[in-house]
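quick one, 565 residues, struct below
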Amino acid sequence: MTDFASLVTLAPNEPQAGGSVLPFDVLSDIMAVSPPSTISALMKTCHALYTEGPKHLLCDGVQLDRSRDIASFANFMLTEDSDSSRFAHLRKLVVALANPGPFEYQRRLAELLVHHSLALETLVLHHADSFLEQSRCRLREAFCGLKTIKRLVVFGVLEYGAAIIQNIPSPVESMSISVANFFRPPDIAPMLRPFSNTLHTLLINSKNSPVYSLFKDLRPRDFPRVRTFGVVWDGSVPELLTTPAFALAFPAIKHLQLIPTAHPYASRASTLMSSFTPMSTFEELARNRARAGNHSQTPRGPPPGRLVSESSPPAVEECSGEVLSVYKLGLNCPLTTLRLWPPIRAEDLATLRVVLEETRPRHLCLPVTMHDVTDLFATFHALPVQAPTRVDLYIVGSWIPNAMDSASNKKAICPWTCLLGLSRRLQNRLYSILEPLFTRPPPHGLVELSLLSGKAPDREWLRPQGELTPVLGSVGEAFMRWASTATPPLAVTWRFYKEDELRWPDVGQSLDEDYDDEDSDDNYDREFEDHDLWFDEEDSYVDPFLEADGDEYDSDQWRRWNDDD
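---
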């Protein structure tokens, strides 16, 4: 990440000598699409870009990974040479430390949080209870004085952190809470009640305690405005969602998210591995059908592991989650949208069919491999009810984007068919995979099909939107002929998708609760996730505890801080 320490000193008034000078608007546009390191380098070239830089440097938020990041960032924001206009660009702050660090660092962070021009909208505390419990009184009071927060994300919450968070006087609209691994999880309902008039999105993760235990004191109409409720799945989720107290406390839920336990930043391979559903589950389904004397393809009774309750889950309009979680919950209401993560595999299709029969979604979004597309459409054909009106298929794990990337480096006369088009060999291979699909017309009821392929080529002008034939060649033509056999004709579109479209919410799954505090950076380990650091280890750094000559500590600063506390 950006080295804020090197940006405290103003840049020269004129561009540095050497090379031609681009127009200011061009340089500003370059800043807008550049990483923080490039923005930082441009800010050091002249006064105009030094003034322009904060808008681009702060727009995506700031993450403090180490205690000394606090000092460099606070100095950057509070330097006497800058005015308060920088605070207008700071909308998101991520505090990823378990320990706030020395007293002086805490004082500087408190000064930043109480600044009159601060208009922070998103606050993220990765290790909330640990950080707040080790903070001095002034810093805790600074957090309790934030009045503009709309999105609050707090991971690692226990009773101490919950008591502080509920005193934040902000109109919080969205909250994500991860309760720390502890034998006595706190009751989070009192922590949420101060935000009941504004809260419309609530996401919950209970690490090793049943999520049901987090809501011990629910009252009728506690949270009348919450429309999106998400919970990281565990075995107690059906019990929570089917209790009358929950239905009375959350009367307005329209979107239910059954969030996977795997963290959303895992590699695609590890996500696919974690999404395997044991074949034994489906063998048990078949045996149960045989015992019941029903030999049809659709199980009628509740299979093993499924919710059996006199109460039913809330009647929602939209549901997102793993297909097995949706199945176990037993949703039996028509949905406008059903969004599934992670990728559907052939082993999941039996469960998917039951879910589609019971929820009858008008819009279905799901990731699938190219090899499973034909079996997926066979599942649509086998439905006793009408297929979804609109289906968005995210083709994951596909070799097609890689083939297009490698082909884009070749010179060709026709850019559409040669630079992006697949070779004849790849077309034949793809056709052999999809050939069974073309032998039957599109499923009845399907009106719109969107195919979303993986990582796009780097060149913007090589990205056709909506046309299959230039990319897939004869396979694209066969696909369009197949779509035309429907009545009315099936509308087929194609585009590239972004990686974050397939990510489910992060409610602390990506954090390792056991941090290593033996090193000097106080960083928590994160699996599969790459970090850009705020600090370049090779850059010079001046500890704010040291005097200008760097020989000894400023004892007056220590004394003033202790006296204030």
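Confidence is low (pLDDT under 50) at residues 267-304, 404-420, 457-464, 513-565.
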